[in-house]
């Protein structure tokens, strides 16, 4: 298994992995053009894991100049529990650290107990004092 930055050419394989992965929610922000724009705005902070030439894991990481945000951490079912998820997170955190971002957040669906167990196991703090709110910029 090896890690490398996620490139625009990986978008199709990454989307296929996400579509096959319960726990990953997809939206208009995951259309290929939108993902290419995300990568252009956040160069070098998102990663893929490859095994025998196959894309087996992803993490999308970006920041707004103040805090980082992790999206779409996913590992292929047959490759789980071998440390790939942890390695992808460490790669993303290192990339943020190099850009002087000292904290990042992530969202987990409330019914994703395995995802929550993973984040707790790797040292993430569950923010029980916060609720997440969202606003659309287009339907107002
Ligand atoms: C969550 C996910 C990315 C973990 O990837 P992974 O490569 O299997 O994780 P790792 O092997 O690095 O696991 C690191 C540690 O996390 C914990 N962990 C991982 N998966 C777990 C699970 N299903 N249940 C409980 N603990 C788990 C373990 O402590 C594990 O260490 P161990 O294997 O030595 O016990 C993977 O299960 C996945 O793709 N899930 C679906 C998508 C998802 O839920 N993404 C996260 C929400 S944003």
User: Over all CA atoms, what is the radius of gyration?
Assistant: 15 Å
State the shape: globular
Bound molecules: coenzyme A
How many strands in all? 5
Q: Low-confidence spans: pLDDT under 50, at least 5 residues?
A: none
Q: Per CATH, what is the topology?
A: Aminopeptidase
Number of domains: 1
The major sheet is characterized as: 5 strands, mixed
Q: End-to-end span in angstroms?
A: 46 Å
What is the strand content?
15-25%
Q: Give the proportion of residues in helices.
A: 25-40%
SSE ordering: EHHEEEHEH
User: Mind telling me which CATH architecture this is?
Assistant: 3-Layer(aba) Sandwich
Q: State the CATH class.
A: Alpha Beta
Enumerate the strands of the largest sheet in spatial order, edge to edge or round the barrel.
Answer: 1-2-3-4-5
Q: What structural class do helix, strand and pairing data support?
A: alpha+beta
Q: How many DSSP H or I helices?
A: 4
Mean pLDDT: 97
Q: Give me the CATH superfamily.
A: Gcn5-related N-acetyltransferase (GNAT)
